[in-house]
Predict the structure.
Amino acid sequence: MSEIKEVIVKTDRLATDKYQVNMGPQHPSTHGVLRLLVTLEGEKVLNVQPHTGYIHSGIEKMCEAITYPQIIHLTDRMDYLSAHMSNEAVALCVENALQIEVPDRVKYIRTIMDELTRLASHQLWWCVYGMDLGALTTFFYGLRDRELILDIFEETCGARMTVSYNTPGGLMFDIHPNFQKRVKDYIKYFKTKLPEYDQLLSGNVIMRERTEGIGYLTLEEAIDFGVTGPSGRASGFSSDVRKHQPYSAYPLVKFNEILDHRCDSLARYEVRIKEMWESISIIEQLIDNIPEGDYALKMKGVLKLPEGEFYQRVETARGEFGVFIVSDGKKNPYRIKFRSPGFSNLFALNKMAKGHKIADLVAIMSTLDLIIPDIDR
Amino acid sequence: MAFNIYDFTTLTHDIHVGLAESFSPFLATTIEWVIVGVVYLLFVALFGLFLVYAERKVCAAFQQRLGPTRVGPWGIFQTIADFIKLLMKELIMPRKADWFLYNLAPFIVIIASFLAIAVLPFAPGLQSLDFDIGVFYLTAVSSVGVIGILLAGWSSNNKFSLIGAMRSGAQILSYELSVSLSLLTMVIFAGSMQFSVIVEHQRDAWFIFSGHLPAIIAFVVFLIAGTAETNRGPFDLAEAESELVAGFHTEYSGIKFAMFFLAEYINLFIVSAVAATVFLGGWMPLHFGNFESFNHVMDFIPPVIWFFMKVLTVIFIIMWFKWTFPRLRVDQILTLEWKYLLPINLVNILLMALVVLTKFHF
């Protein structure tokens, strides 16, 4: 890394230096392999330039060599905290292209698993956020409860995080007989814990000092950068795909889209906490009413999509995740492109962190809830 | 040799007399110095080990997990294993680092801590230096530690260390004021700077009780400023800002890092011990004025146990809020000191002076 030093000499002040510091690909905080080239003047951040690509795995290219059901297993690994939702996006895209309708049971189960994934993702975000701010205890509290969700996933889907539960046409297997009871017990337990967690951080004056007014992103900037998800909603950008273009069982449930107009880090924090409450409410509406039926349609052995272009978007915990398939009639896609929410959110970081201090940069990046494999693919 | 756990003066007197009989005065004094030095070294080493272990267990308790459990019963040898590991590490020095200052820095920090421990009254008779300006000496000597930190940051020839050291230096210098002023408040109340006199005056009631409001305010301010002094708790940006910079002790490895590490825990002990001595009565058991039977019962517990119980309580409180609160940013730390704690301290001193003059205390 080359050090660029420009000496700015002002005739009536001390000479100050601008210097560049590398928040290298290896972080002690857990965001993943991202390199930030930060130009600083003293403590103040002048410019943040993200360098991505350290975990680029060529997922989109790999998808051109495998069949559609196999693509689902790769989408797990991109945004691994919203694995189920990414799987669902691909499955829905293929189902819409083939113009088939899945049974209602599948829709309900997919939505319940979606919301459980969102809860797990926001819990991990919360615990890492506290840790980045310095309250190291939150890391353990959040993970402890996330483990309960992961146990539910393991029992039903076979894997804790990279679930691969969806398949074009339905689900891989039916839910475990214990599923409904465990989810209901978990919701009852978590409703007592979430206020505790919220109070631990948001009731704390130090946390407020570090987040109020920090990392301002106006509504126009959010739309310009395409910042979707809770980060965008905290600036007032109403972009919830579950509301605008509902899929699966979302047309059947009542929930609020959490919008906040304060545009700072505290708003992003509170939007996610409120979203957790909304997820709980959605699960409660659906968990007792799962209709009977098949867990999957009978599909052909080899799936071939008709020629053309197909797009499907879902709302992951980070924002709008899109799957764009260009098919030429074969069993592999000609080209597949994933619209990743983290990519757009990351590049708004420069705007948000300008003028703040180094410590704020880390806190702001944490409120964006970035998953780097999602950005790099 | 009479060993009276309630009053160590018999033990020290006997040792002194024994040595004076057998050796020349010069040799006897020298041997006494060596004994005192060795005892302090052992104490610092052992208590440092214990504190690191306690921190890990307390931290684990707050995080709902167990902490070290494997090395020794309940993991008590964990710290020893850690220190053996540190001792075995290669001592790497950056090429362009200033050799003399780089190696000197950890020693300065440790020396400052030792100088401060020397005046603390552990028990009647277990106080090696009893100056009549004890409190003043303590604050003066603990300021020497800042030099070590700044030297470490500067001599490492590392941009990040320098930033960390500058921040830490600014923070410690600012909070020195609050520490000194809150101690000054209690000196006004006690009427003397001598530690043994301060402890003696708490025979009827601890200062935090008899000095009511101004003493409680001074105690809270002292706790806040004390943790900021030791770079701990919510004020640990100089070392835990490892998100970006890794602090002033980045370039130190092995035994030199162990010195910084140990010095931090000994400073924690010093801050707690001073809080316990000046506010909570030092080695004085809990007495309430005229309740003779109650006081008599309290006297059963040896003073040295009282002292350590108080110190451990204050240490627990300091660890408690380290593991609960997020970190403050550097400008927020300095704002806290200069805009809030300092005015509160000054007003508090005035209040305490009024309380003493009007004798409006217990």
In short: The mean pLDDT of chain B is 85. The two ends of chain B are 40 Å apart (CA to CA). Chain B touches chain A through 26 residues (CB under 8 Å). Chain B has two domains: 1-88, 97-357.
